[in-house]
Amino acid sequence: SSNNAVIHHDNLVTTIPEYSRQITISSLLSSEKYGKFAKDHPDNEKLQKLYRQPVSVTVTVKGEKSGEEPAPEKFSVSFAMMGDTAHKEGEHKAYIQWIAAETSTVEEGTSVMDLTKTVLDKNGYKYTGASNYISSITSPDGTTLSGTGNGPNSGWMYRVNGKDGEVSADNYILKKGDTVLWYFTDDYDKEYVIGAESVSISE
């Protein structure tokens, strides 16, 4: 969804906005019958056309109020990212600052995921995943950290204002002054202590 504050989740859960808004919904469409064969036959053009083809539609969600919507409010938030070495299941030694805290100006309705993709693109990081999570990030120097890469419970997680996100990154809508921190944990069942390594997520 182009605006997760209005339409979100795979089931297209809708929140009625104050004013009518046009929302673009994008997805990847695969043939239920033949799409599964495309992975095994990447050179077969006919099968590839039946697998993960981008589709989109723009709809208007009627708002509670009539008239023209005011310009969205803009405000500042902070973003930082802590990486690690790709040590597989070896001992974790220290977190590495991949992106130092920087301030971004965003519009009302911007999600953690929206901000994350914008900052990663700007800083030359490559990433994979879905609309609601990040599974792998590669730094400009070629270091890749991906889910389960440093152990079965390792992966990327995010915090806002010092607390782990309780919803997916695309469903966390930012507010003025929020501080966002992404970090790669070796074990998501263990608490991540920022102070132990003198890491600041604010400028």
Summarize this, please?
By secondary structure, the chain is mainly β. It contains 3 helices and 12 strands. Helices cover 9% and strands 36% of the residues.
Give the SSE map.
Blueprint: E1 7-8, E2 13-14, E3 21-29, H1 35-38, H2 45-48, E4 53-61, E5 74-83, E6 96-107, H3 112-122, E7 126-130, E8 133-138, E9 144-146, E10 155-160, E11 163-164, E12 179-185
Parallel strand pairs: 5-12
Antiparallel strand pairs: 1-2, 3-4, 5-6, 7-8, 8-9, 10-11, 10-12
Cα-atom Rg, whole angstroms? 19 Å
Give the H and E element order.
Answer: EEEHHEEEHEEEEEE
Count of individual beta strands:
12
Total number of helical segments?
Answer: 3
Q: Approximately what portion of the residues adopt beta-strand conformation? A: 35-45%
Percent of residues in helices comes to under 10%
**What's the main sheet like?**
5 strands, mixed
Q: Order of strands across the widest beta sheet?
A: 6-5-12-10-11
Q: Give the distance, in angstroms, between the N- and C-terminal Cα atoms.
A: 31 Å
Structural class: mainly beta
What low-confidence regions span 5 or more consecutive residues with pLDDT below 50? 195-203
- Outline type: flat
The pLDDT mean sits at 83
